[in-house]
Structure of Enoyl-CoA hydratase:
Amino acid sequence: MQEIIRSVQHGVLTLSLHRPDKKNALNLAMYRELTLALEQAQSDPQINVVLLQGSTACFTSGNDLADFLSAGELNAAHPVVRFLYTIAAFPKPIVAAVAGLAIGIGTTVLLHCDLVYAAPACRFQMPFTLLGLCPEAGSSLLLPHIAGYQRAAQYLLLAEPFTTEQAHQFGLVNEVLSAENLLPYAAKKAQQLAALPSDAVQRSKALLKAPQRQQVKQVIADELVDFQQLLQSDHCQQQLKAFFSKR
C-alpha cells in the first residue's frame, strides 16, 4: 500500500498521509518519502506550494514508535532527523490540513507550516514528557513564540491535549472548517497561493523566517541531543515498555 500519496495540480504538490490501519502513524519509510518529496519540490519550478494532509478522519497519531526506535541513534542520517531539517529549511510555502488526531510530530510539524487549516474536532497533543522525553522539531522555541510561554509550558511540560478552538485562539491554526470542507478549502488556499508570483512569495517567506532561521536549526540540534539521552533513561524505557505491553 502506498503510504504517502503524491499528486500535483495547479502548482501544488499534495502529500497525503495514507496509513489508515495505523492512524497514519509515521514510519521510517514515510519519513524518507516525505523528505525526498520536499527535496524534489524545492528544485522543481513547476511546484510553488506543498499541501500536507491526512484524511478527513485523521492527520497523524505521531511516530510509529517501534519503527522509530529501530533506526538507532538520532544522527544526521536518521530519517526523522533528515525530515526535520528539510521541512524547517523548506523555502516554498507549506499548507497543512488537519483533522482528527495530531499527536507528537503531528502537532510539532505544523510549527513549520505557513498556513494551517483544521477541522473542529481535532486532538492536538505533544506527549513527550509522558514518555520521559523532551520537545522536538524546534517546538521548544517555536511554540512559545506562537502561543506565549505559559501556554507552551502547559502543552510541553504537562503534555496536556488541546482542541482546535484552543489552537485557533493562540494562533497555531489559521481557520477552522467543517470536516467535509477542510480538504477542498485547504487545496483552494494552496492553489491561490501557488497562483501568486512565486519569487515574491518565496522571498516573503524567507523574510518572515529570517530572524529565527539559524536559531531554529540550532534548537532542533540541541533538542535531539537531550532527546537521545532521555531515550536511554530508566523512566523512558519503562514508559516505552508499558506502551508496547498495552498495544
The longest helix spans residues 213-231. The CA atoms of residues 49 and 193 lie 7 Å apart. The chain has a mean pLDDT of 95. The chain has one domain: 4-180.
